[in-house]
Amino acid sequence: MGDVSTGQRALFFSILGIVNATLLWPVCLALYLTGTEQLPAHRMPWLPLLLASGALLAFHLVFQFGNLMTYNIFVSLGLITAVPISAALDVVLYGVEFEGMKLAGIILITVGFFLVMFPDNWPDYIMRLLRWSRRRQRGADGAGRSRDTVDYRTGYIRSHLRSPSGRVR
Question: C-alpha angle with apex 130: 129 to 131, nearest 5 degrees?
Fold first, then answer.
């Protein structure tokens, strides 16, 4: 959507927070007053909630304002490593077993992050790499054989599908 300044980004998130606070508190109050959601203060897991909210705040601050202090590539690498590290922590701490679709989901998320990090013209780089490797293989096998010449008079391109006169077989 274009480059935004730090002030514009901070203003947007401030307005978003104010709108959330103004529009969502009636929903919480209605759920509490109707008895749909009972939240007794003595049974709330306050420490995990506070740690999760602090970690989420730090994540958003680093993600949104990290490009001011460092390159965008480092922020993207942090996002890429977050998913597998979270999965490893789930395995170690909670004994979660990743198999089937869960494992495929983690792999696809990681591959997706890598694809987003690639430059827009990454297929051009791959094609250059493939051409370079073919040229290198021909140089080793053909002992310096030059590229196949094209006879523009007859259309002969050293193809097995064309005769030496240029006609299609």
Answer: 90
